[in-house]
Amino acid sequence: MRILGFSKKWPKLEQPEFTTFRFARNDKDWEVGEAVQVVYKPRSKGREPLGNAQIISKESRDCGALTKEEAIEDGFVSRFEMFAWITRVHGTRWAYEEMNKLTLEWIQEDERL
After folding, report:
1. What is the dihedral of CA 94, 98, 28, 37, to 10 degrees?
2. I need a surface site. Which of 63, 71, 102, 112 has the fewest CB within 10 A?
3. Is 89 left (phi over 0), alpha (psi -120 to 50) or beta?
4. 107, 53 in Cβ contact below 8 A?
5. Angle at 1 between CA 48 and CA 59, to 5 degrees
6. Domains held by the chain: number
7. What is the pTM for the complete model shown?
8. Contacts of 25 (CB under 8 A, 6+ apart)
9. Which domain holds residue 40?
10. CATH code for position 55
């Protein structure tokens, strides 16, 4: 099971379904139906498994076409704040690559880690 890491405990992670935006992976891109382990701070000593989730939809998106509503749903207060965060983390990659909009649902939510 692959890891889907988060550097912040976003409020959206408390919902039964949530979305996240990710660039395509070079090794093997995310796939609908794939089960993932959601982890807070995956590359640190403070690593914390949050539970398992399943990707229920995947939509390729041009970053310039992301809406204010999507940015808010993703945990930001505005599109500007979302783009600032993406630029800080990924540089200008958003300008020439599409992102995947992944929708996930928790599996075994009552037994969440």
Report:
1. 70
2. 112
3. alpha
4. yes
5. 95
6. 1
7. 0.86
8. none
9. 2-108
10. 2.30.130.30
